[in-house]
């Protein structure tokens, strides 16, 4: 069974900064194109080329403007027509200064745009790359979705973008179609939620594919939206304004049209993290990628329509991390790598082996840079915390295998995999090597 994971919420909320600009056009006057994406902790990561420079972006329905926030290894990016602007995002930090750049050439798959606007944050570190384990240079949403009908296949990690005026909906008995409500170019959907053995409550949720959670719910006792009695405090994610904390709980079910998702996980962010951030006044929270990954989805911004069809992930259980650890990529370390080579040699010696094919095997030692993982967040009273792990510990091995041989997303899946599973970590704490063992435990 594939276990859903919560690791990171990429939740960027801005004041309304979108402006009218051109459109994407598909090469060769074709009606559609396919694009392979990476699903990293259930988030959609795509290649984006800006002014000839290849970058990696999150594709996020929850943002209305395109942002570049990491250019450490892309300093040669030439941007055009710049001016200063202030952005405001969720988290502990203050509003930040960015650069608005217009008239840029952008390519995504087989589509191009010759007058693209992007906002660039140079003096603010948004740690998405180290939390996801691969370079993430920016985020794009409405600027892409507004020009196409976009079909997502999370199973094959592929999207197909169609010209809006050429798309034809198939008849589909297993599908359900939803009306989208737009506010400041962001899509909202009406759902019903059963929080804690109460009646189904109607909610307006932002569809936020850039959220690694299933649901975010804003507490509102006057509307009957209360945090369930069984909950726990936790780090919820990282946004433009910094870290976000709150409570996590499990809800009875989410009714999404004719579909029901039971025992669904939900996060309730502390209100102080979104003070001063404007949003849709009827909004009750967000619907994230742990829900979207269970469907084949079709986003049709032009007709304000969303189609959902269950995929093979639909019945998977919702699980929180069972270790209490949030790992981050922190630099690189030099490791030995052995290159084995078996070669066949035709013997020309005068001994008994003349004319026989002889196989020679040798190992060549190489040195390479490998990712280094550090404990960035640790849930109090979690199995990892009770076993003695601490924030800042460098993880060297996991179950006797070098940590650098895992992708960060693979480790996160492991930490959410099976209650009772034993985890053995060798860690480096300020030069001291420690071996720590604990068992994964389901928290709710």
Automatic annotation (TrEMBL):
PROSITE patterns per record: ASP_PROT_RETROV (PS50175), ASP_PROTEASE (PS00141)
Tell me any Pfam family this protein matches. Asp_protease_2
The Swiss-Prot or TrEMBL record annotates one GO molecular function as: aspartic-type endopeptidase activity
Q: Does the keyword Isomerase apply?
A: no
Q: Does the keyword Phosphoprotein apply?
A: no
Q: Which residues form the Peptidase A2 domain?
A: 55-91
Q: Which GO terms describe its biological process?
A: proteolysis
Q: Which InterPro entries match?
A: Aspartic_peptidase_AS, PDZ_6, PDZ_sf, Peptidase_A2_cat, Peptidase_aspartic_dom_sf, Retropepsin-like_bacterial
The alphabetized UniProt keywords are: Hydrolase, Protease
SUPFAM superfamilies, alphabetically?
A: Acid proteases, PDZ domain-like
Q: What is this protein called?
A: Aspartyl protease
């Amino acid at each position: 069974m594939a276990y859903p994971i919560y690791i990171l919420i990429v939740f960027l909320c801005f004041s309304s900064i979108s402006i009218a600009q051109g459109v994407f056009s598909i090469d060769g006057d074709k009606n559609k194109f396919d694009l392979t994406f990476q699903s990293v902790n259930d988030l959609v990561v795509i290649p984006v080329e800006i002014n000839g420079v290849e970058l990696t972006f999150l594709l996020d329905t929850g943002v209305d403007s395109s942002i570049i926030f990491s250019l450490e290894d892309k300093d040669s990016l030439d941007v055009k027509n710049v001016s200063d602007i202030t952005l405001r995002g969720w988290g502990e930090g203050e509003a930040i200064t960015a650069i608005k750049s217009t008239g840029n050439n952008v390519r995504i798959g087989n589509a191009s745009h010759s007058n693209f606007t992007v906002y660039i944050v140079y003096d603010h570190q948004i740690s998405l790359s180290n939390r996801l384990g691969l370079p993430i240079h920016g985020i794009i949403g409405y600027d892409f979705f507004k020009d196409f009908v976009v079909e997502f296949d999370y199973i094959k990690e592929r999207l197909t973008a169609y010209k809006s005026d050429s798309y034809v909906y198939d008849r589909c008995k297993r599908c359900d179609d939803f009306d989208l409500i737009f506010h400041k170019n962001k899509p909202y959907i009406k759902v019903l939620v059963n929080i804690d053995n109460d009646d189904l409550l109607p909610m307006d949720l932002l569809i936020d594919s850039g959220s690694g959670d299933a649901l975010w719910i804003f507490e509102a006792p006057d509307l009957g939206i209360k945090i369930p009695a069984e909950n726990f405090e936790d780090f919820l994610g990282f946004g433009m304004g910094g870290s976000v904390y709150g409570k996590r709980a499990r809800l009875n079910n989410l009714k999404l049209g004719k579909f029901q998702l039971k025992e669904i996980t939900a996060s309730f962010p502390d209100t102080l993290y979104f003070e001063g951030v404007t949003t849709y006044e009827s909004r009750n929270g967000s619907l994230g990628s742990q829900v979207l990954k269970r469907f084949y989805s079709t986003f049709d911004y032009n007709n304000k329509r969303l189609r959902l069809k269950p995929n093979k992930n639909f019945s998977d259980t919702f699980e929180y991390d069972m270790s209490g650890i949030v790992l981050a990529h922190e630099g690189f370390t030099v490791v030995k790598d052995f290159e084995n080579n078996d070669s066949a040699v035709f013997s020309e010696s005068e001994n008994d082996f003349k004319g026989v094919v002889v196989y020679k095997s040798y190992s060549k030692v190489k040195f390479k840079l490998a990712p280094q993982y550090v404990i960035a967040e640790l849930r109090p009273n979690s199995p990892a915390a009770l076993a003695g792990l601490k924030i800042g510990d460098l993880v060297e091995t996991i179950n006797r295998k070098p940590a650098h041989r895992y992708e960060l997303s693979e480790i996160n899946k492991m930490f959410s995999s099976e209650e009772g599973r034993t985890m053995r970590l060798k860690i480096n704490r300020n030069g001291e090597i420690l071996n720590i063992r604990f068992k994964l435990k389901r928290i709710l």
